[in-house]
Amino acid sequence: MIYTEQTKKALCLCFEAHKDQVDKTGVPYVFHPFHLAEQMEDEVSTTVALLHDVVEDTDYTLEDLKEMGFSPEVLEAVALLTHEKHVPYMEYLAAIKPNPIARAVKLADLAHNSDPTRPNEITDWMRNRWELYKSAKSFLTAP
Fold it and tell me: Is 121 a residue of the active site?
C-alpha cells in the first residue's frame, strides 16, 4: 500500500463507507478494496482502488468525494468505475478501457472477483459471472 495524505483519506473513507457490509461469503467487504489497493503502484491508482465501489455501493456521491478534496484524476476514474444499472455492461467497459487508471483497477477487481478460493461454495451463477469477467478481461486487455 502506498501511504500519502490522499490514500490515507481514501483508506479511512473506504473503511467508513463499507464497514457494515459483507461480501457474498460473509467476509467484511472492506477487504476487497484493500486487496485491490495493495496491488496498485502509485498514489492515484491506490486511491481509486480504495474508492472504486464507494459511489456505486453506498450513499456517498462523486460530489461528496470532490468536496473531500480528491483529485480530478481520481474522480474521473471512480466515475468510470461506477456502473450505473441502466448502462449495458459492455458500454461500461468500453468507457473504462481508455483510462489507464480505471482499467488497472477494473482488471484487479475482475481478478479478485473471479478468485475461486473466495466463495464457500461455487454456484452456477458464479461460474456464469466468471465467464463474463473472463470476457471483460479479454476486452480490457485487447489492443
Answer: no
Q: What's this model's pTM, rounded to 2 decimal places?
A: 0.94
C-alpha 15/C-alpha 82 separation (Å) is 18
Q: Is 67 in the active site?
A: no
Using the structure block, give the residue that is written with the C-alpha cell 452456477. Answer: 124
Q: By the 8 A CB rule, do 67 and 48 touch?
A: no
Task: Please name each of the domains of the chain with its CATH number.
Answer: 5-141 (1.10.3210.10)
**Cα separation, 27 vs 87, whole angstroms:** 29
pLDDT tens, position by position, 35-85:
999 999 999 999 999 999 999 999 999 999 999 999 999 999 999 999 999
> What is the signed CA dihedral for 73, 4, 7, 20, rounded to 10 degrees?
-170
Over the stretch 71-95, which tens digit does the pLDDT of each residue have? 999 999 999 999 999 999 999 999 9
Catalytic hit among 56, 63, 91, 115: 56
